[in-house]
Write a structure and sequence with these properties.
With 405 residues, the protein is mostly helical. The chain has helices at residues 2-12, 20-28, 33-40, 44-52, 59-68, 104-126, 144-155, 159-165, 168-181, 218-233, 251-268, 271-279, 288-298, 302-311, 317-344, 351-358, 361-372, 378-385, 389-400, and strands at residues 185-189, 199-202, 209-213, 238-240. The chain starts with a helix and ends in a 5-residue tail after the last helix.
Length: 405
């Protein structure tokens, strides 16, 4: 009976919090009040009064509200809302040119990456470790070729080494490794549609962030990573949709996006090297077979090769559009088949396998170093890595075997 009374008491007990925190949590999550009312199963009228300070939520209702906004309950007991980080410039546009809305899921992933960066800095300070600083800088007065050479020299990966990798999956892993080595935290996300986001650059110092969409093909993620590194070298944060042209952007932002695309393209598929490779083929390389061969050679997508041919005047706009439509149809089928396969599958990969890919290599290493040097408890490291305790050691084994990011 005592347990039942305690439960009833909790149901009736008001949560004495600053109502401004309700508004802060909901707005930073990108949710409307109707969204939260539905997710938390609380009446709209009650939420309107709670957010305005005219009424209080019960402790149980607050827990539901917090879950809907993806915030810990403890955050609502702060004296006032935390400062909201400066919003990330949005380079994505709908066909009409208007800006896309940021989904609650994408907002959450950006917020998580920012929080993990803070945790990485705190762990490095606790371990008395000096982290590499990403200090590559160039501006758009440089040509895309000059900027790509600066970036290649900074990452320390030669074109010959890139070509030796042979597979997009291998190339992606190596480019992520190279970016982390110069002080960039590279994360991937799992639940964001490719149509919403291809990549995010957060120009912060130290430890800037690049976020890739794990739903994308490996070759496309490689291009996104190099594109975001160009953003970081320009000291420009961005949320990118991946389209080569984005109607509706300001002239300055449109030029920045075009420049980052050109840098990534010239970096991965240098003009003269591409021409030499294609001219060495019997058909001159200007065919779908030639695209496939060049894509494999440089560990990129056929779309990237086709666009390199277009911007360098080797093919007409009409030829490019024809190839582009074929590749787009094929890619849409790939996404559809993968989604169907995922639905049919009774179980996906273990969560630690997903985290091994999604989490920054530097972030994971710092967490395990802190645990092994007794700066973090087992529960502490499991919380930071977002894993159950039993998953922590499975993740450590994956990373040590080279199966991580």
């Amino acid at each position: 009976m005592a347990g039942v009374r305690r439960k009833r008491l909790k149901l009736c007990m008001d949560a004495h919090i600053n109502p401004e925190l309700l508004l802060w949590a909901r707005q930073t999550a990108g949710l409307s009040i109707e969204d939260v009312a539905k997710k938390a199963a609380i009446s709209l009228a009650r939420l309107l009064k709670a957010e305005s300070g005219e009424a209080s939520l019960t402790t149980i209702q607050l827990e539901k509200y917090a879950a809907a906004c993806r915030r810990p309950v403890a955050a609502f007991y702060l004296p006032k809302p935390p400062d909201v980080p400066k919003s990330v410039p949005d380079f994505r546009r709908l066909p009409g040119g208007e800006a896309k809305g940021l989904s609650a899921e994408l907002r959450l992933e950006i917020r998580r990456a920012q929080q993990r960066r803070i945790e990485a800095l705190e762990l490095a300070e606790e371990l008395e470790e000096e982290l590499p600083e990403f200090n590559l800088a160039f501006n758009q007065e440089k040509s895309a070729t000059e900027a790509s050479l600066l970036l290649r020299d900074y990452l320390g990966i030669s074109l010959q080494e890139q070509i030796s990798w042979g597979k997009p999956e291998k190339a992606l892993k190596e480019w992520k490794r190279a970016a982390e080595a110069v002080g960039v935290l590279v994360f991937e996300v799992s639940r964001i549609p490719v149509g919403e986001m291809r990549g995010v650059a957060l120009s912060l110092q130290p430890l800037p962030i690049a976020i890739l969409n794990g739903a994308d093909e490996a070759s496309a993620r490689t291009f996104s990573l190099l594109h975001e590194l160009a953003h970081l070298a320009l000291n420009v944060s961005a949320i990118d949709g991946g389209a080569a042209e984005q109607p509706g952007l300001s002239p300055q932002d449109a030029q920045t996006e075009k420049f980052c695309n050109e840098v990534a393209g010239e970096f991965l598929v240098p003009r003269d090297t591409l021409f030499s490779f294609l001219e060495g083929r019997g058909d001159g390389g200007l065919s779908m077979a030639g695209l496939a061969a060049a894509a494999k050679h440089f560990s990129v997508s056929r779309e990237v090769v086709a666009r390199r041919l277009l911007v360098n005047g080797k093919i007409s706009t009409g030829q490019f559009q024809q190839w582009h439509q074929l590749l787009r149809d094929e890619y849409e089928k790939f996404l559809k088949d993968r989604k169907a396969k995922s639905k049919d599958s009774k179980s996906g990969p273990p969560f630690e396998v997903i985290q091994a890919r999604n989490l920054s290599r530097t972030f994971v290493r710092l967490a395990f170093d802190a645990y092994e040097q007794d700066h973090l408890s087992l529960n502490g490291v499991s919380g930071i890595l977002g894993l159950k305790v039993k998953g922590v050691f499975a993740l450590r084994d994956l990373v040590r075997q080279g199966n991580g990011a």
